[in-house]
Design a protein that fits this description.
25% of the residues lie in helices and 36% in strands. It has 346 residues and is an alpha+beta fold. The protein folds into two domains: 2-223, Rossmann fold; 228-341, Beta Barrel (OB fold (Dihydrolipoamide Acetyltransferase, E2P)). The protein has a six-stranded mixed beta sheet, sandwiched between helices. The chain has a five-stranded antiparallel beta sheet with strand order 13-12-11-14-20. Strands 15-19-16-17-18 form a five-stranded antiparallel beta sheet, with no helix packed on it.
Length: 346
């Protein structure tokens, strides 16, 4: 049963459509990531849920109650911004207690709840420090504790890890997911980072040009994108225009493998780089390696072929593989091919 419902939510600014007909049902305790490029409408959607931006159309239902016209201060939602918005003149404990002060919570209960929230984010010993004395990761935890201490029905996160370096960002992703599961709070997070969305989300809501492109679990969206945009924004993909007729797909004059389906006509033929391999013999397609990049845990190859440039990734097993300029054969399994009607999800 849905705990938070967005029903036909939309926002326009004069002639600009920022969000169009956004409908989403979120279960209690679910972690949702709104993912997409800059300007896709994900932050505007979050701001409408928070109550900072009034929707032009649609409704927002929380646990069955219509909160569309309710002021942000009356919604009781927990919010963490990218900047964390901590008060520099207040200690960690005072920052966390701020929302309770505004709600006139009694001193004893306030102290207990602040201590509980700080323990939850492993910052109890730092209660008397000031934000300037904390690392970026610690400041983020303070912001999380401040959002959670009011015991909100929904936690909203707006690019909360955007200011962290890569290594700390990965560590905080794991901590945030563990914390969310422990508390069991319904969470909606905005991000433009594909890896972050796949790491954290129960479901990803992929947005583009103000509209929802696809809603799915991370694995499902990655393996079964519903269009060219989904296949190329969430990870890397080789996408080629082709024609399906009967049990045959022709791409650039070549017959390529696929698991035949009812899809016919103009199609996009999609195969992920890690699903390609170098062939011992001729392979499905021949090409020449134009570039090879070492990325630590894998190698990324760009291969010039009659169909255009293909990307192939190969796990790093401690030895250099094919080199730039090598002529190679490429192969892949029809089971790893995704074929969709061209323009199915523009």
């Amino acid at each position: 049963m849905a705990f938070l419902d967005l029903v036909g939510l939309g926002k326009t600014y004069h002639e600009l459509i920022a969000v169009a007909d956004c409908s989403l049902s979120v279960a209690k305790g679910e972690f949702i990531c709104l993912l997409g490029p800059s300007g896709c409408g994900k932050t505007t959607t979050l701001q409408m849920i928070a109550g900072f931006v009034p929707p032009t159309t649609g409704r927002i239902l929380l646990d069955g109650a219509d909160i569309t016209d309710l002021r942000a201060s009356k919604r009781g939602l927990g919010i963490v911004f990218q900047s964390y918005a901590l008060f520099p003149h207040m200690t960690v404990a005072a920052n966390v207690a701020f929302g309770l002060d505004m709600r006139r919570v009694a001193a004893k209960e306030r102290a207990d709840r602040v201590a509980e929230a700080l323990d939850l984010v492993h910052l109890g010993p730092l209660a008397d420090r000031y934000p300037r004395q904390l690392s970026g990761g610690q400041r983020q935890r303070v912001a999380l504790a401040r959002a959670l201490v009011i015991r909100p029905p929904v936690l909203l996160l707006d690019e909360p890890m955007g200011a962290l370096d890569a290594q700390l960002r990965e560590e905080m992703q794991i901590e945030l997911r563990a914390l969310q599961r422990k508390v069991g709070i319904t969470t909606i997070m905005v991000t433009h980072d594909q890896a972050e969305a796949m790491t954290l989300a129960d479901r990803v809501v992929l947005m583009n040009k103000g509209a929802i492109e696809q809603i799915a679990a991370p694995f499902e969206m990655y393996e079964y994108p519903n269009g060219r945009f989904a296949s190329t924004f969430l990870g890397k993909a080789n996408v080629f225009a082709g024609t399906a007729s009967g049990e045959t797909i022709m791409v650039g004059g070549l017959r390529l493998p696929w698991v035949a389906s009812a899809i016919q006509g103009e199609v996009d033929y999609i195969v992920r780089p890690e699903k390609l391999g170098f062939a011992r013999d001729g392979g499905i397609l021949r090409g020449r390696i134009g570039a090879r990049v070492f990325l630590g845990h894998h190698w990324l190859y760009q291969i010039d072929t009659p169909l255009g440039v293909l990307q192939l990734t190969e796990a790093n097993i401690g030895a250099c593989g094919a080199a730039e300029g090598d002529d190679v054969g490429l192969t892949w399994s029809s089971a790893h091919v995704r074929v969709i009607h061209r323009g199915a999800a523009p």
